[in-house]
Amino acid sequence: MKKPLILVTNDDGISAPGIRALIAVMSELGEVVVVAPDKPQSAMGHAITINSTLYLNKVSAENAAITEYNCSGTPVDCVKLAVNEILHRKPDLCVSGINHGSNSSINVIYSGTMSAAVEAGIEGIPAIGFSLLDYDWNADFEQIKSFIRKITIEVIKNGLPEGVVLNVNLPKLPENEIKGIKICRQAKALWMEKFDKRKTPQGKDYYWLTGEFVNQDKGEDTDEWALEHGYVSVVPVHFDMTAHHMIQQLNTWNLNEKN
Amino acid sequence: MKKPLILVTNDDGISAPGIRALIAVMSELGEVVVVAPDKPQSAMGHAITINSTLYLNKVSAENAAITEYNCSGTPVDCVKLAVNEILHRKPDLCVSGINHGSNSSINVIYSGTMSAAVEAGIEGIPAIGFSLLDYDWNADFEQIKSFIRKITIEVIKNGLPEGVVLNVNLPKLPENEIKGIKICRQAKALWMEKFDKRKTPQGKDYYWLTGEFVNQDKGEDTDEWALEHGYVSVVPVHFDMTAHHMIQQLNTWNLNEKN
Questions:
Q1: Is the CB of A80 less than 8 angstroms away from the CB of B255?
Q2: B96 is known to lie in a ligand binding site
């Protein structure tokens, strides 16, 4: 069987330990090409670069086993450039991460890691975003490699339906304390912002965005519940953002009557 | 009846003609506070600023009818700062736009305009994003003001269910040729990227992202269909990205069996 072509990207930048761990797992499973940001691009959401130029630099040696490029743009730019300018074809799989920190629940919408996976999904490529609930640069990714391998093998084997990508979050636990893998829905949660207001040396006000995560969802079928209870959470994510249940109600509004 | 407090933002920047037109309509309907980016922030998606500082400048005169601030951050940052640092309470409505250009179908996911509306929705604020299918800086926003007024009045009157915001796109047509307002779903569409590869004066390759829009959806209930046929499209958008229909199928995978 031909080895699958696997595109690896992330949002923490090409030198982050998380992506190095992901590359290590993927290189056992397929032919790996890495195209990742040249600097951290966390919380970039689905941003793309349209008002400035993009650079792409090959950083691996000519005879290296894995081809690696860094890119000056966002995670979504990386996927677009990889498919169009490097691979010149759809890879068989795109994996993004391993993110240093959670992308569970509402974080999916802010996450550069997940936006790269979603972009791959839009382009018809099976895709998975992986995140470890540990913001430490030196987080222990060894503990979770077996779960990443297992999920990736299943995706290669079963494929994913068109328009669906996986958001995988892993608890910060030793491997033998992780209870298993749970299929979940996105928990209803939000960040309560707190701005840290400061003054520049010149006396001008400025702000740092900080916040407190609030899970408003008591369901036991959510990613937050799974992670709190020691499971790996897998949420199937799609990018049809239509609130289909609302269409009927909106059709009762008087939008087309003259006032 | 007390006038509603309306937060106005956008992604083209505070001086764009689109937001000026939106402010004009909203000032007839409520008390308006503007918090918008100090520079264009198109295609920023749901990006937030966590690795650098944010500035907020009051740009309206003390006795002006409308209070206006510009912000150094993204559209989502503007909403967060407005709610937390300026208004110190939830506004009754948040409107974003009028965007210079379409945010229909898959564009919802790249759009700074819509991400600002979605952020408001996450924070429990009824929200609408407005976009005109005209990329011209000097587009004629007069033609669409009556539709924006109508939709906004209906939202103020009916409210929106929690977790739903509206994505409104308006065709580039004279007012009397616009056929009406249609409730739609997001069309299945994508951008086929094309990179314009160039060389710097120093001989280094760089890229501009360009692309061609491809509507893959033949449905007559989509926003693309409505806009092509001369209607204003209204898509209810939510931010639960779970592909609920996929959960059952994923539960048949062998994720928890030993290899």
A1: no
A2: no
Contact (Cβ atoms closer than 8 angstroms) between residue A123 and residue A64: no
Nearest chain A Cα distance for residue B93, angstroms: 17
Chain B residues lying within 8 Å of A186, measured CB to CB: 240-242
Nearest to B181 among A108, A153, A256 (CB): A256
CB-based contact, A253 to chain B, within 8 Å: yes
Cα separation of B240 and A240, whole Å? 10
Average pLDDT over residues B195-202: 91
Give kind and range of the element (H or E) at residue A194. strand A189-199
Reported as a single tens digit per residue, the pLDDT across B62-76 is 888 899 999 999 999
Residue contact B46–A46, C-beta within 8 A = yes
CATH number, domain A5-188+220-250: 3.40.1210.10
With CA atoms as reference, the chain B residue closest to A189 would be B122
Q: Residues A71-121: pLDDT tens digits?
A: 999 999 999 999 999 998 899 999 999 999 999 999 999 999 999 999 999
Structure tokens at B186: 């997001």
Task: Give the tens place of pLDDT for each residue, A37-53.
Answer: 998 887 777 788 887 88
The contacts found for A154-162 with CB under 8 angstroms, 24 or more apart, are: A154/B253, A154/B254, A154/B255, A155/A93, A155/A126, A155/A128, A156/A4, A156/A29, A156/A30, A156/A92, A156/A93, A158/B253, A159/A126, A160/A121, A160/A126, A160/A127, A160/A236, A161/B246, A161/B249, A162/A124
Helices B145-158 and B17-26 meet at what angle, rounded to 10?
A: 50
Q: Which of B53, B204, B253 sits opposite A207 (nearest CB)?
A: B53
- Across the interface, do A234 and B244 touch by the CB < 8 Å criterion? no
**Every domain of chain B and the residues it spans:** 5-188+219-250
- Token digits for A13? 């930048």
Between CA A95 and CA A93 the distance in angstroms is 7
- Binding residue per annotation — A12? yes
DSSP tag of B211:
E
The partner residue sitting opposite B49, judged by closest CB among A106, A115, A209, is A209
Looking at the domain covering B5-188+219-250, what would its CATH class be?
Answer: alpha beta
